Amino acid sequence: MIKFLNCQINLSKKVFEPEIETEFWVGKAIKDVRMLECSNVGMLKMLDIFAGTGCIGIAVLKNIKKTQVDFTDISKKAISQIKINLRLNRIPKSRYKIYCSNLFEKLKSRRYDIIFANPPYVAFDRIREVQKEVLEKEPSQALFAGRDGMYWIEKFLKEIKTHLKKGGIFYLEFDPLQKKKIKEMLKRGGFKFSFRKDQFKKFRWLKAIKPSKTTSTGFSFRKSNSCEASPK
What we know:
By secondary structure, this protein is α/β, with parallel strands linked by helices. Helix content is 27%, strand content 23%. The strands form 2 sheets. It has a 7-stranded mixed β-sheet, sandwiched between helices. The longest helix is centred in the N-terminal third of the chain and has 15 residues, at 20-34. The protein is globular. The two termini are 19 Å apart.
């Protein structure tokens, strides 16, 4: 059992344990998204893809009231783990759905206001740099993604537009060495984006917005004194 922001996360199914860098950026993203609660946008539909333990989506559900979250992962163990952690954190069933899916395959034409993605991104070429205890503890499926670590990121970025609403946002975690390739893909896709650093001053995550002439989500990031913009 570990803590992730203000959530309890069970690891009994031996899926990938959330990293402290992930906890850092998810906290920042939640502060970002919570401002939408003051913008009268109604219920926000979100997706936690490559969900693993479900820690990101669960943190969102616990800290942002006007949200519904879909969870998806290719691993059946991960799906079981997500169900355990949703019960552990007493999340009402009306606020989430769970899909065992290869990327967006089972989601069909579903579109989201916000998508959170923490895919496997360790390059096989850098396996010697991975600590021995990490290799022994973590499932390889949750770590590695081809020679350059970009296999799942590339597939995700090729499909993301179809599953974002106009003006929709996605957050993505990556290896700092992958920044250049990701930047090129985002430019080709016409996204507005910004790369952001983790607590160790390394580029670790990004925020991107689907191009749109009209912002159908009604997103506004103006601060309000009446809105608390931080996780509990």
